[in-house]
Amino acid sequence: MNLFISHLALYLCPTIIKQPMRLYYFILFITLFSFTSSCIPIKKLTYLQENPYESDTITFLRKKQEPYRLQVNDLLSIRIKALDQEKVGIFNPISDASPNATGEEKLYYDGFVVNDQGQIRMPLIGYVDVLGNTVDEVREKLEKILLEGYFREESNLYVTVKLAGIRYTINGEINSPGSRIIYRDQLSIMEAIANSGDIAITGDRSDVTIIRQYPSGQRVHRIDLTQLDAMNSPYYYVKPNDLILINPLPQKSWGTGTTGLDSFRTIATIIGAMSTTLLLINRL
């Protein structure tokens, strides 16, 4: 953008020199053009905006979301409790690979990974199909297998199945890009953005891209975070293995600045260059 304005100024210089009034209008045009095109409107920076024509908006937000269905490479934390402690110890292995591991490392060694065939491999039981199941469905399946072959009804069997955190990657116009893992059952995209230091001023909050995994492959979705209705979007909550991409605003590539101060500096530079050029031409 700066290069375009500079070329335009050089092209019009001969005419402007002869008519000072045109110089005044030209500088005014450049000033107004730079301010209006470069500054980012406040609406582009504000999250979850309500209807501006209503003083008190009542919005019904959908809290319930579709349960997550397991994909390949998901990591599960499975724990079994019962009165028979000897058998329970077999199904709750503790890896010898890293006995001092904690947190994510411990889950990596002791958890159960969904393989390429959509199965997990458990002691004694062997392979169990889990692809496309929810964690509750996997729990019910394991309870049935254990009660039929390994435990009695009076053993007070108790099985818990959880995802080993929500893993996602966020990239683009974000202050702290990278991969994250959150040990919670639910995470909104607003929380994911906050965990990464918020979207940069040059990021487009109205066009956030989410690449999500499904049993049939990956799909690309978009969400507008400047509208309050985004909270009702099926993509408002982060799913495991989501890739969140923050796209840039056009102002980033224009190079005229993103704030009023940046624009003023750009205009001052352009006017300074024009004045120097005009002085040089007048002396020729």
The termini sit apart by: 29 Å
CATH structural fold name of the largest domain? Outer membrane lipoprotein wza fold like
Query: Taking Cα atoms only, what radius of gyration do you get, to the nearest Å?
Result: 30 Å
How many separate domains? 3
CATH superfamily of the largest domain: Outer membrane lipoprotein wza domain like
- Sheet with the most strands? 5 strands, mixed
Q: Architecture of the largest domain, according to CATH?
A: Roll
Unreliable segments of 5+ consecutive residues = 2-12
Strands across the major sheet, in which order? 7-6-10-8-9
- The top-level CATH class of the largest domain is Alpha Beta
The class by helix and strand makeup works out as: alpha+beta
How many E strands?
10
Helix-strand pattern: HHEHHEEEHEEEHEEEHH
Shape: elongated
Percentage of residues in helical conformation: 25-40%
Percent of residues in beta strands?
15-25%
Number of helices: 8
Mean pLDDT: 79
Secondary-structure map with pairings?
Blueprint: H1 2-18, H2 20-38, E1 75-81, H3 85-91, H4 104-110, E2 112-113, E3 119-122, E4 126-129, H5 135-149, E5 158-163, E6 166-172, E7 178-182, H6 189-195, E8 203-214, E9 217-223, E10 242-248, H7 250-254, H8 260-283
Parallel strand pairs: 6-10
Antiparallel strand pairs: 1-2, 1-5, 3-4, 6-7, 8-9, 8-10
Detailed description of the structure:
With 284 residues, this protein is of the alpha+beta class. It folds into three domains: 2-39 and 261-283; 44-57 and 165-250, Outer membrane lipoprotein wza domain like (Outer membrane lipoprotein wza fold like, Roll); 75-163, wza like fold (2-Layer Sandwich). Helices cover 36% and strands 21% of the residues. It has a five-stranded mixed sheet. It is elongated and about 100 Å long. The chain starts with a helix and ends with a helix.
